[in-house]
Structure formats: C-alpha cells, structure tokens
Design a protein that fits this description.
Number of strands: 20
Mean pLDDT: 95
Largest sheet: 9 strands, mixed
CATH superfamily of the largest domain: Zn peptidases
CATH topology of the largest domain: Aminopeptidase
Number of helices: 18
Number of domains: 3
Low-confidence stretches: 1-13
Radius of gyration: 28 Å
Strand content: 15-25%
C-alpha cells in the first residue's frame, strides 16, 4: 500500500525542469519573456557551465546603474577580437532589447547560445565565426516592466518599456550618445568592430502574412565592395535560408501610400540608428523586425532561426565577407569625398512578390468615420514595386585635418570614444585653413530625443592663408583615422544629417553675446559707412535686392553692424576648422 502511494505521488509530481530552460520555454503558451534578472542569471549559469566556450563580461555602465554585459561564444576559447581576426574569423555581433517591449531577440538569443553549445554541428560554426551577444542593451527599459504600453502588439504578457531611464529612445542615440548605454556600447562596438551587426526589433504598421521582415544597411550608403556583397551574396543567402526554415521574409514593410501595394521603400537610416551607425565603420548592419500582430511564440522562433541563419551564412561566406570588408577599408583609407545626406530614388529598382492581405474601409465603431482594416480571410501574393536605391544630396571634400578647440570637451570625448585619433598641439601651428559661418539654418520647433534638431544649414566659407592654431588645439588628421574616417567627417561637417551641429553640440555660437544701443551706434555706423564707401555700395545693393531691408531702419543698422569690425567674430562661426596645411609629425 505504501509502495502504491509513493508510485502515485511520483506519477502526479511535475517533471523536473531541465537545466538552462528559459521562461519562454517553460510557459505552455510561449507568451512569456525573461525578466532582466532571469536573463542575466541564465547567462551566468551558461558561462559557469561552459568556461571553455563562453565568457560573460561587463562592458561599462547604463543609465539604470546596472552594467552592460557582453557574452562571447567561441568553439576554442578565442574570446578577444585580435585573436579572432588572427584566425580569420568574422565577428557576428547581436544586440537585443534596445526596445525592451520588442523582446524576441532576448529570448531567442538565450536559447540559441545554449543550443549552439549542446550540438556538435552547431558548435563547429563557432570555430569559423566569433559570436558576441549583448543580452539586454536597454536594461533601464527592461526593468520598467508593464503590460500596456505596446498597445498594438500581440504578446508577451509583460514586457519592458521603449524608453530608457532618461526616457531616451536608444535607437536614436548612436551619434549623440547622451546615454551611458550608448557610450558603453560605442566602446564595445569599437573594440570588436564586427563584420555583421544585428539589432533585434518588432515592427508596427500594416498587416501582412510575414512573421519577420528585414532592414539591412542601405546598400548605396555602404562602401561599394560591401554594398555589392550584401546585395549579391549575403541577402540572397539569408532569404533562402529562412525560406528553407519555413519563414518566408520580405524587406521591412515601409510605404508611402495607404497600403503596401503602393510599393515598399527601403528604410533610409541615418547614423542615429544602429544600422546607420554600423555602416560608418564598414560594418553591415541588420534590423530584423518581427510582426507585432503575430503571436509571441512564432515571433521568437522566427528570430531564433534568423539568428542561426546569420551564423550559418557568415560561416559559409567568411572569405567573401572578409574580402569585401578589407576592400572597403582600403577604399576608405583613400577616400577624400564623402556623402553627407541622402534621399531615396523615386524610380523602383524592381518588384517583389508580396504576401499581403486585402485592405478595405468600414465605418469606425468609435467615430463613425471610415477606417482602414485588413481582411485576413483574403490573403494575396502579388508584385509590388520596391524602391531600394538612394542618392546623396549633399557632400564635402575632407580637409587634411579638423582642428577642434580644447573647449569643446563633449565633442572630443565622443570622437575618442568612437575610435577617432586626436593629437593635441604642444605649440602653435600656422598654416592655411577654412572656417564655416552659419548664414542660415532651420531648427525643429519641438524637442526630439532631448535636442532641438538643426537642418538645412546654409554655410559660407572663408579661407585664411596663415591662420594660427594655439597650443592645446586638437587635430584629427584624416589620414590617421583608419575605420573612423567616415564617422569623423559625418559628425564634424555641419551639413550632415546627424552631425554634431545638427544635434545642438555647438548651439552656444548661434547666440550673440554682445550688441549695441541703436541711438549710440547710429553715429558710429554713419562714420563707418563714410570711411568705407565699398561697404556703403554693398548696403545699397542689398536694399535694392531686399525691399524689406530697404523699408526698415533697424534692419539696415543691423546690416551695417554685421559688416563692421564691431560684430562678434565668434557669432555663427563654426568653431571646428578645416585644416589644409601640413601637420607636425606625431
């Protein structure tokens, strides 16, 4: 009788949980994502159990006060970038949880890291590719867990918040680096400088049949060797690999019309985004986007399979990928002309067989007005235009060096953090240089990610044959920058979309510090014009060209002030100089 009771109790008792099982796997509905504590504990256990193939390390602080972590996977304990490159292994860098309400990558990476170490065939891939994983980038948002802020999304039950502890969207912070998260990431990214960078996400937008879509770095914005490799080899293999795993993919569903039939447009990322930032350093970036309306389980499984497909493809194509990166680096070392702003081309580059749902309109139950809906009972496959090409709209020829005054410490810190080599002058240096002046610019009326963005900068350029830089000035010599050359140009040329000027790092020069009392300056201005007839002629010409100026006495007085020796030399003068002369030896 006692034996029978024990047998019954054993039968009814739940089976023991297998080691290293994720919360996602333990949930029968597969609608649970790991908390930050669960995620970190999982990786700590994984690293402790596999010290020869896994290292979990801290990599700087985040705004949450918690450290960023990196997990490195290698079949033979090659845990450092230099050692990996010495063995001819590309770096696959996977970042998760930049938007913690989009957590598929967090759970998929936990399972993938574990499974790679358990399967001999999968482990062999880690002898060809070194994998680096950021388990959770926006730890701040991951700790801010809720069940309501992703109103459009089908699960999981609870998740993190998009903003970090400073309410910043970290996928807009890769250039300005306001957050400690971004600063720690930049140092880690520069240390590894991966060939392929993957930043996992979940999409919003239209309804369609796909579980997962893909944003790569815009191919025209990559170096030609990388753009050609991406389009001709890497993307076709990724799409084919996912199709073999029963996950048909499409480019990210972004369109200008009401529904996708109007044509898909490749996402034209600037360096504020992860894929745009990666491209500055000849890394191919990817932003996979699972579809918000699909259940969480399939979204995680699709992300898992895509990450595995990246690893398989990079391993198979390692020689071609490394050759393309090397050629891109050689081209960058010789590059003198740089694109600074881009726009998508209006001509379609081809068509895609798109798997969508028929759309229509019906009265809204809220307003009674017509509203859009998608009918899942009416799926279709039909060709749609694909706008995949871009062209530059602004550019600049780089100088010999940029000269940055020591006063601009925040700019200097950002440059150093992102791999820029800076030389401090120990004595004055005299030679030719160019200076920009801001004649006009536009500023957004509302803040965007903590800044009032500037755009449409209209510049005038003055050249001095013998300008003297004081000791303490920092030189960023273009020829010494290696992979950071493009980053240097795109952050310091004011016309660039995500330049430091655009983000407001130099706003203090846009405000005048001294001025005049008009009743006093009237007499000084009259004397100045009398002594400088050429300036009087310029004023007369300006009045003829501008009726508003001709009708305004105060405006004319201001015009004279700005064209006189009394005007502030630093007002609207860009403090970073384009150095054109020789530079001292380091």
């Amino acid at each position: 009788m006692l034996f029978a009771s024990l047998l019954l109790a054993a039968t009814l008792a739940p089976a023991p949980t297998p080691p290293l099982t994720t919360p996602f796997e333990r949930d029968p509905q597969h609608n649970t994502t790991a908390t930050y504590a669960e995620c970190l504990a999982f990786y700590k256990e994984l690293a402790a159990a596999n010290p020869a193939t896994v290292q979990l390390r801290t990599a700087g602080l985040t705004d949450s006060g918690q450290p960023l972590h990196e997990l490195v996977l290698s079949a033979d304990g090659t845990f450092e970038p230099a050692a990996s490159r010495a063995k001819g292994r590309p770096i696959l860098f996977i970042q998760n949880g930049i938007h913690p309400g989009e957590p598929e990558g967090i759970d998929a990476s936990m399972m993938l890291a574990r499974d790679l170490l358990r399967d001999k065939k999968s482990l062999a891939l880690l002898s060809k590719v070194t994998v680096v994983i950021i388990p959770a980038y926006n730890i701040d948002g991951m700790l801010n867990r809720n069940s309501t802020t992703r109103v459009n999304q089908n699960g999981p039950r609870a998740y993190g918040f998009r903003g970090n502890a400073r309410h910043l969207d970290l996928n807009r912070d890769f250039v300005k680096q306001d957050s400690r998260n971004a600063r720690s990431f930049a140092a880690l990214f520069q240390r590894w400088r991966p060939e392929v960078f993957v930043d996992t996400h979940t999409s919003n937008g239209a309804d369609y049949q796909y579980t997962i879509t893909l944003i790569p770095s815009q191919h025209d914005k990559l170096a030609p060797a990388l753009g050609t490799y991406l389009q001709g080899q890497l993307l076709p293999a990724l799409y084919a690999g996912m199709a073999q795993k029963s996950w048909p993919m499409t480019p990210y569903v972004d369109f200008e019309g009401e529904t996708p039939e109007s044509g898909l447009r490749a996402f034209l990322e600037s360096p504020r985004y992860s894929t745009g930032y990666a491209a500055l350093f000849n890394s191919i970036g990817f932003m996979p986007e699972t579809h918000m309306l699909k259940a969480f389980g399939p979204r995680v499984r699709a992300t898992y399979d895509l990450l595995l497909t990246y690893l398989q493809t990079v391993a198979a194509q390692a020689p071609a990928l490394l050759a393309a990166r090397a050629e891109a680096d050689r081209a960058l070392a010789a590059q003198t002309r740089f694109a600074l702003a881009w726009t998508g081309r209006d001509t379609a580059s081809g068509t895609l067989q798109f798997r969508g749902y028929e759309a229509g309109h019906k009265p809204s139950a809220v307003s009674g007005q017509p509203r859009l809906y998608y009918d899942r009972s009416r799926p279709y496959v039909r060709p749609v235009p694909f706008y995949n090409d871009a062209r530059p709209t602004a550019g600049a020829t780089a100088p010999v060096a940029y000269a940055i005054p020591a006063a601009w410490g925040e700019v200097l810190d950002n440059l150093r953090r992102n791999g820029v080599v800076l030389r401090e002058l120990t004595q004055p240096l005299t030679g030719p240089a160019e200076a920009y002046r801001f004649e006009d610019y536009k500023t957004s009326p509302r803040p965007y990610e903590g800044h009032y963005l500037h755009s449409q900068a209209r510049l005038s350029t003055s050249r001095e044959a013998a300008l003297t830089l004081p000791a303490g000035t920092y030189l960023a010599v273009l020829a010494e920058q290696g992979p950071a050359a493009r980053y240097l140009v795109e952050t310091l040329e004011p016309q660039a979309t995500d330049s430091f000027f655009a983000w407001g790092f130099f706003d203090s020069v846009l405000q005048q510090k001294e001025h005049y009392s008009d009743y006093v300056f009237e007499d000084l201005a009259a004397d100045f014009l009398a002594q400088n007839p050429a300036v009087r002629q310029q004023l007369d010409a300006a009045k003829k060209a501008d009726p508003a100026l001709a009708a305004s006495g105060p405006a004319q007085l201001e015009w004279v002030y700005q064209h006189s020796p009394y005007a502030e030399p630093g007002y609207r003068r860009y403090p970073v100089l384009r150095w054109l002369g020789a530079v001292p030896r380091p």
